[in-house]
Amino acid sequence: MSGIKAYGVAIPKRRIDATAIWDVWKNVSKDILEKMGMKERTVTGPDEDPISLGVDAAKRCLKQAGVNPETLDGLIFCSETNPYQTKSAASVIQDILGLRHDVFATDVQASARSGFDGIRIAKSLIDGGSAEQVLVIASDCLNQYMAPGHVYEYAAAAGAAALLISKEGCIAEIDGMTFASEDKANWFRLSGDRYMQLGAGFVGYISNWGLMDSLKQSWKAYADKYGVTPASFEHYALPQGTVVQAFMSSGAIGCDPYAALPYVVSEQTGDMGSAQVLISMCSILDLIDDASVKVGVVGYGWGDGSCVMGLTTTDHIGSVPNRPVVMPLLEQKEMIDYGMALKYEKKIDRAQKGFSSYY
Amino acid sequence: MGFDNLHGAIPKVEIHNTVKAYKEKAGRYRLQGVRCEDCGTLWFPRRFVCPKCQSQHLAPYLCMETGKVVTSWVDTMGFPAIGYEDIDTRVVAMITLDDGITVIAEIADEHLEVPKDTPVEMIIRAQKRDDTGNLTYGYKFKVCQ
Question: Residues near A102 by Cβ (< 8 Å), separated by ≥ 6?
Fold first, then answer.
């Protein structure tokens, strides 16, 4: 059975405090920040984007696996904020990592669920015999596409996760995956738009109840297909754009919220898009040393749908090198102010052609 | 020194050539240089003729991605370098890689000079936009944590 052989994570070093944004805009009641668990979020540097973060995560993943990039059979780059609208970003990463040229390298763009879609494709390729090892990278920079003054600016952040999906030597086998998809009036960004638009309200019907609606469907499909109950999994990685979403998701599934809360990272990082739940999953894998531990991974994508993935750890997980991965990256941070964040996220309008201040 | 005549000393603006950047991408992406098959000397960036023994038998060689800082300096010439306006303090360092090759590269996410012998590792960042507007990715270094 195919599963996860190694994992890597990248989280930008720069962070901004939610209160630093609130001091400028004051567009929500301040206690909302605390209630929704929005404390800090990551800010990409002037030279960071989904590709550079994805490469960072992928290098950590390949180092943990001890795998030569030339032996990989595929690379799937999953992002909802791909820098390229036509060209493939996967081919750039393929060249940077040094993969062979005769591999399957493609991009997946399907909201924050993209990472799960990539894992599903990789698993199908491996189970079908077309590939032995496929690298899946989920990377997003939501912060660069969130308008200044928007209420989600407190949460929209950046991060990347990379998973090596393989047939042999897995640290966690993928028991199964089920999906639920529906056209929901949620976040979107049309081609040419600078910023993302919110479909039907930040705390409105679609954003919150839509999440729970979709999770119920994909969870029911998983429970029926594999005969599991919410108590079958010891640990959960749940949707967590804001911390409150994790509570809502646990309610929709019916699992114990305390099986997921220790692994909710969004209070420190914000919403990292397609990488968010996978980074939470990596923080679970960081702490497990025993075989046969069941982990439930649940993802939700804006205006797209949800996914449930069941993992069972194997004997190999105890001997994984370079762990923990997530915690050191969370601790390594540099706080910046709001002006610098706007500059780094390229939200300040300025002359396009000027060479410098002197020309 | 100085401006000797009107046409001679106009500060030159770097011309970024897309085709050249494409041909040299293995060096930018993976620090791929060459090893002389006759005298064994390593070269980065790649050469077509060994500067030491003039041999043309050069094989691709992947440089080590870790090294130590020899010296570093903060780019503080009063205004940002062309193409690098977004980077407020740009730290540049001379780095000796673990296989002995010395490169000059930017140290990402730092604001002060990096002390001598600080261990660094190679990372990939968006360097700048080329003359067609496309993004150019390439190596920088960051301090090992």
Answer: none
- Residue pair A54/A48 in contact (Cβ under 8 Å)? The answer is no
**CATH at A180:** 3.40.47.10
The pLDDT > 70 percentage for chain A reads 95
Residue B4 maps to a domain: no
Domain count of the fold of chain B? 2
Nearest to A85 by CA among A197, A199, A190: A190
Q: Tell which B residues from 15 to 74 touch A, by Cβ distance under 8 Å.
A: 25-26, 29-30, 62
Residues found in chain B: 145
Counting the structural domains of chain A, the total is 1
> Given a cut of 80, is residue B13 above it in pLDDT?
no
- The C-alpha angle with vertex A97 and arms to A91 and A101, in degrees rounded to 5, equals 50
Q: Please tell me whether residues B94 and B117 are part of one structural domain.
A: yes
Are B32 and B85 members of one domain?
A: no
Say yes or no: B51 and B72 in one domain: no
Q: In what order do the strands lie in the sheet with B58-62?
A: B42-43, B32-36, B58-62
The reply to whether B140 falls in a domain is yes
In a domain, B8, yes or no: no
Nearest Cα of chain A lies from the Cα of B113 at a distance, in angstroms, of 17
Q: Specify if B95 maps to a domain.
A: yes
Which residues of A make CB contacts under 8 Å with B? 13-14, 45-49, 51-52, 55-56, 83, 92, 95-96, 98, 328, 332, 334, 340, 343-344, 346, 355-358
Based on its alpha-carbon atoms, the radius of gyration of chain B, rounded to whole angstroms, reads: 17
B43 and B112 part of one domain: no
Distance from CA of B56 to the nearest CA of A (A): 25
Q: Do residue B117 and residue B137 come from a single domain?
A: yes
Whole-model pTM?
0.93
Tell me which residue range forms the domain holding B84: 64-145
Q: Rounded to whole angstroms, how far apart are CA atoms A34 and A28?
A: 11
Domain with A43 in it: 3-344
Interface test with B, best of A84, A334, A356, A358 (most B CBs within 10 A): A356
Do A114 and A274 meet the contact criterion of CB atoms below 8 Å apart? yes
Judge if the upstream peptide bond of residue B60 is cis by omega within 30 degrees of 0: no
Say if the Cβ atoms of B86 and A47 lie within 8 Å: yes
ipTM for this prediction: 0.90
Local confidence band at B77 (pLDDT 50, 70, 90 cut-offs): low
